[in-house]
Design goal:
Blueprint (H helix, E strand, L loop, with lengths): L2 H10 L13 H4 L7 E4 L6 E5 L9 H4 L5 E3 L3 E8 L8 E8 L5 E7 L1 E2 L2 E8 L4 E9 L2 E10 L12 E3 L10 E4 L7 E5 L10 E3 L12 E5 L6 E7 L5 E6 L8 E4 L7 E9 L2 E10 L2
Parallel strand pairs: 3-10, 14-20
Antiparallel strand pairs: 1-2, 2-4, 4-8, 5-6, 5-9, 7-8, 9-10, 11-12, 12-13, 13-15, 15-18, 16-17, 16-19, 19-20
Length: 286
């Protein structure tokens, strides 16, 4: 892991930022494709925030590897807010932010959309630091925290680390890549690492320079449900998806040969058995 994620982790140690989830969420799924999300409140009073613009920042290790929500200061963050129950809500959601480790405050007011029903918002944290957000609508109120950092001068592609040692799902593999967060226990072996390249990488077109297939074996704890992958190029428009079934008689092993169309920086979002994680890698020309 590079220095930047470690610095972000140190800042988060004193800022109780809301955990970012990458797995299934019934509320967030009503708005379409897979995305990361945060939540505030408990039970019937829970509020889910679907992070629409979060993916484009996941090439930054400070964002991806942090245990809580990290956003770029001064940049708008598109978040769709969905209360678990709409009873007691009003036509507007008010978001007030106050910086906890310095001076600063902001306020935004967002009208509820009706079909589907949610509160669309564009939240801009003005300056770097730890911020407390208070969200109010009708008679309901929630609080959560977020860490804002300086945006990079250009888009980053901090690739996921390649790990050594026994794989936590199948110890016969000793070189592998783990999805973030590690608690998802979703890993990939074989062709997601390339000799001489630091971090996760794969050759485009489904073949390596020696003519072999780019086989990727996904290893995940669970009950053998299908594993879904969303591939998104972070520095280009390309996307594609995969749905993998467990290998016959081997629970938790999902063989695949992804055919990545173009070189570049790619985000993989992976889900299985309700859990989820993300990986960033470089796709290379053979």
């Amino acid at each position: 892991m590079g220095l930047a994620p470690l610095l972000a982790a140190a800042a988060l140690a004193t800022c109780p930022a809301a955990p970012v989830e990458h797995g299934e969420n019934a509320a967030a799924s009503t708005l379409g494709t897979a995305s990361s999300w945060i939540a505030a409140g408990q039970g019937a009073h829970r509020l889910t925030g679907r992070l629409y613009s979060y993916d484009e920042t996941l090439g930054d290790g400070r964002v991806r590897e942090a245990p809580g929500l990290v956003v770029y200061a001064g940049r708008p963050n598109k978040i769709a807010w969905l209360p678990r129950q709409w009873s007691g809500t009003g036509p507007f959601l008010v978001i007030e932010g106050r910086r906890l480790d310095g001076s600063g405050a902001f306020r935004g007011r967002y009208r509820r959309a009706v079909s589907p029903q949610f509160y669309p918002s564009g939240v801009t944290i003005p300056t770097p630091g730890c911020w407390r957000l208070t969200l109010r609508t009708g008679r309901l109120r929630w609080t959560l925290h977020v860490l804002a950092v300086e945006p990079p001068g250009e888009a980053r592609c901090d690739t996921t680390s390649v790990r050594s040692g026994r794989n936590p799902v199948d110890g016969t593999f000793t070189r592998w890549v783990a999805a973030t967060p590690a608690a998802s226990v979703i890993t990939a072996a074989l062709s997601l690492h390339v000799p001489g390249i630091e971090g996760a990488a794969i050759y485009v077109g489904g073949r390596a320079p020696d003519g072999s297939n780019t086989k990727v074996l996904w290893l995940a704890r669970g009950n053998g449900m299908p594993l879904r992958l969303w591939w998104t190029r972070l520095d280009g428009p390309e996307t594609f998806q995969q749905i993998l079934n467990a290998a016959g008689g081997v629970t938790g092993a999902y063989p695949s040969i992804p055919v990545v169309p173009t070189p570049g920086c790619w985000l993989l979002r992976v889900r299985v058995d309700g859990r989820g994680g993300v990986i960033v890698l470089r796709a290379l020309a053979p």
